[in-house]
């Protein structure tokens, strides 16, 4: 079974993801300002307005991710295109009967949450297709700044590749630990990753060794 170890990550604060897209402000400003033209029932207007105003905040509340919300720019563009397309189609219609418009907004919101969840998780799973340390560029959903994710993939095709990957991992951890504490990394937990143990090391044992640190 393929395993994935993500390194050097911190918990994300709840803010949202779609708001990091360049067209978000203009798009949702238009949606909010035209919401009063979309329903025959006046009660739909404040409900719909609230859904649109709280879109980013509510998104992170519904993601329920155990990993930081960091999404690649490519996947963010894909999510944004899908959301804007459905929203634009909804706004092209005339006035709707009571209850329809806010229900459609909720449906688009739920679809957006699923798209973001899948986008973030898929990028992490893709790491298993690499051998050793791998890094990919992302956007932090907490503050919309450029970020990156560093992870360790187990898809090595030979024992030599696996040994090199583990050695690179040890060097990375040692470097990261020195930057964090300004001391060298001396931990008996990692003896299982050092020669001569590498020859008989299994993926399961390596994972257990790393997660116990």
TrEMBL record:
Leader sequence segment: 1-16
Alphabetical UniProt keywords: Signal
GO annotations of cellular component type: nucleus
Pfam families: IZUMO
Entries under InterPro entries matching the protein: IZUMO (IPR029389), Izumo_fusion (IPR052868)
Family statement: Belongs to the Izumo family.
Listed name of the protein: IZUMO family member 4
Taxonomic source organism: Moschus moschiferus (Siberian musk deer)
């Amino acid at each position: 079974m393929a395993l994935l170890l993500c390194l050097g990550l911190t918990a994300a604060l709840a803010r949202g993801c779609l708001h990091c897209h360049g067209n978000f402000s203009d798009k949702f400003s238009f949606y909010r300002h035209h919401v009063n033209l979309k329903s025959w029932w006046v009660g739909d207007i404040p409900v719909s307005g609230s859904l649109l105003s709280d879109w980013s905040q509510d998104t992170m509340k519904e993601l329920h991710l155990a990993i930081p919300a960091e999404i690649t720019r490519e996947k963010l563009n894909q999510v944004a295109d899908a959301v804007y397309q459905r929203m634009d189609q909804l706004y092209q219609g005339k006035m709707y009967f009571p209850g329809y418009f806010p229900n459609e907004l909720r449906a688009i919101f739920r679809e957006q949450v699923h798209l973001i969840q899948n986008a973030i998780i898929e990028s992490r799973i893709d790491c298993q297709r690499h051998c050793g340390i791998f890094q990919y560029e992302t956007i932090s959903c907490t503050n919309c700044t450029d970020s990156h994710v560093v992870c360790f993939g187990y898809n090595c095709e030979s024992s030599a590749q696996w040994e090199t990957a583990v050695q690179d991992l040890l060097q990375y951890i040692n470097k990261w630990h020195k930057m964090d504490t300004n001391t060298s990394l001396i931990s008996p937990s990692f003896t299982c990753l050092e020669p001569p143990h590498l020859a008989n090391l299994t993926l399961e044992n390596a994972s257990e060794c790393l997660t116990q640190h």
